[in-house]
Amino acid sequence: MASLDLINQAPVGTKLWILHLGILECDDGWFIRAANASSLSNPNPVHKRRRLVMLGILIEHPTEGLILYETGGGEDYPNLAGTHVQDVFSRVDYDKSMNLDEQIALTGHKIEDVKMVIIGHLHLDHSGGLDHFRGKNIPVHVHELELKHAFYSVATKTDLGVYLPHYLTFDINWVPFHGAYYEIAPGINLHHAPGHTPGLTIMQVNLKESGTWIFTSDQYHVKENFQDSIPQGWLARDHDAWVRSHQMIKGLQKRTNAKVLLGHCLDTIKELGVEFAPTTYK
User: Fold this and answer.
1) N or C: which end of the chain has fewer CB within 10 A?
2) With helix as H, strand as E and coil as C, how does the chain read?
3) Number of compact structural domains in the chain
């Protein structure tokens, strides 16, 4: 019996591309619990660092038009993030080919063709490119809890740095969704997965030829979080919620045999054998 999760199939002609929006280099302790921690026997361990990819997902949909899931950090990330954030979450080896508009151009489209944006969560390295959609009336879908938390965090400065004011503006056409699950388009399901942030949302895409894909945003930064069930490190927020979301995603993957692309993991992309744009998946 086919899983009920597969009922909502994308129409014939749906295409998907994986966009490479830059590389970050950071301390492993941000992403893996107890990474780089000292001990009595090893009080000064070598601090391992890791290179992470920033991703966007572009979908050409026969009935909904061009859909973009997440936007990367934006072209001016180092300046807008500020000296301290750029030093900690450092964008490295960047060139203009990683700009959002340049990556979309590799698919044969223009950024002006985008009809809908979906945001997994509103941290700067996933939503910094939203400045492209200011004043454009393009619907930007995000979970209501994420939208509320992000604006609150900036307004009160309680989590300023990971959320930034330059893309949390009133001239973006914010469209919140509510609850645990939303069939936003034929073949595209959104699942609320709190833990890393209150309103984090993963995207499930059921394609005819390549099968089901799950894009987790930062529920998982790296493969150890997903494959070994190791929670995140210093970037963790709500541990209990993260565990519940992890169980939900593990079950979804098992039922659908999905390819699971994590928020930043280059190793997982290599292990799955998937390629960045212009390679197309149907």
Assistant:
1) N
2) CCCHHHCCCCCCCCEEEEEEEEEEEEEHHHCCCCCCCCCCCCCCCCCCEEEEEEEEEEEEECCCEEEEECCECCCCHHHHHCHHHHHHCEEECCCHHHCHHHHHHCCCCCHHHEEEEECCCCCHHHHHHHHHHCCCCCEEEEEHHHHHHHHHHHHHCCCECCECCCCCCCCCEEEEECCCEEEEECCEEEEECCCCCCCCEEEEEEECCCEEEEECHHHCCCHHHHHCCCCCCCCCCCHHHHHHHHHHHHHHHHHHCCEEECCCCHHHHHHHCCCCCCCCEC
3) 1
Residue-number span of the structural domain to which 96 is assigned: 4-272
Per-residue model confidence as pLDDT tens digits over 228-280: 999 999 999 999 999 999 999 999 999 999 999 999 999 999 999 999 999 99
Read off the pTM. Answer: 0.96
Domain with residue 17: its CATH number is 3.60.15.10
